[in-house]
Amino acid sequence: MDLSAFPRVSLAVLPTPLQRLDRLTAALGGxxxxxxxxxxxxxxxxxxxxxxxxYLLAAAQAEGAxxxxxxxxxQSNHVRQTAAAAARLGLACExxxxxxxxGTEAVYERTGNLQLxxxxxxxxxxxxxxxDRDAVMAARAEALRLEGRRPYVIPVGGSNPVGSxxxxxAAREIxxxxxxxxxxxxxxxxxxxxxGTHAGLAAGLSALExxxxxxxxxxxxxxxxxxxxxxxxxVATAAFAGIDEAGAAARVTLxxxxxxxxxxxxxxxxxxxxxxxxxxxGLVLDPVYSGKAMAGLIGLIxxxxxxxxxxxxxxxxxxxxxxxxxxxxxxxxxSS
Length: 336
Ligand SMILES: *Cc1c(COP(=O)(O)O)cnc(C)c1O
Description:
Layout: E1 18-20, H1 22-27, E2 32-37, H2 49-62, E3 67-73, H3 77-89, E4 92-98, H4 112-119, E5 123-127, H5 133-146, E6 151-153, H6 161-180, E7 187-192, H7 196-208, E8 213-218, H8 225-241, H9 245-251, E9 254-255, H10 268-281, H11 290-302, E10 311-316
Parallel strand pairs: 2-10, 3-4, 3-6, 4-5, 7-8, 7-10, 8-9
Antiparallel strand pairs: 1-2
Helix pairs in contact: 2-3, 2-6, 3-4, 6-7, 6-8, 7-8, 7-9, 8-9, 10-11
The structure holds pyridoxal-5'-phosphate.
């Protein structure tokens, strides 16, 4: 696999650290757990979207874009990282957000990622849950073109073959880092939503013929995600990167059962997982993605799917700003 032909702009601090979680490993009585710190990609509080944006914004620059448009939920980490990347590259940024989590408190629209989007200078519009965000972006892009501007539209989550290249490259980074640390990776686990992270890792691991089993933990409760999004995106990413398509598709594995009632809606297992990571390791996870993924990891260990003698890398995809949009949720917090 050779990604050198694809334009890439440096936005992330790489490689991100790979750290052993001794106390969590001991508490769960078994598999050796390591964390790959993609929460520390370094741009405006970090996260997994920064690796995708290295390729997406290089493509935008190659097209001569002067502004980027993207979309997400009100507490989207992807839009926050896009706003930061655009600021760093001197591009204007417009964010189309939807109220995609029911029952949130008023503070939800004043703090966390949304507060940062505004600080980073992005233009934000907030729409009802059912809004067709792609249609809103397309219409806005057309209006900008009529004004003589050059917009570049990034899909939700940055999940297309261009963005997924960031995680094709990350697969190699993880494999090399593990090898240098003398680790044999049996499992690689991460939170999965719009699919670019999983598709890129599936293609990358396949190209490397790496034996690690990849598992994406579904954080949305979407039963069609694997067949309708992840496999097609893994195939398209592989084709784009010159990697065997069937091999990439064969790596796609979505683990269901940890999303609870849906995207952004807390679960008891997530609360336990976030508290364990914080209190055993000083590791801060988020309620929407990395917390549910950690709940998935804990569940897979407890049910024996991940065995005591194995080694697992938990990919921390970031998302911590969203913690502040859920005040009073974790035990020991006092809500006034
Ligand atoms: C976007 C996101 C994910 C999911 O990544 P996808 O590539 O969209 O599947 C996981 N964790 C965090 C914190 C995210 O922001």
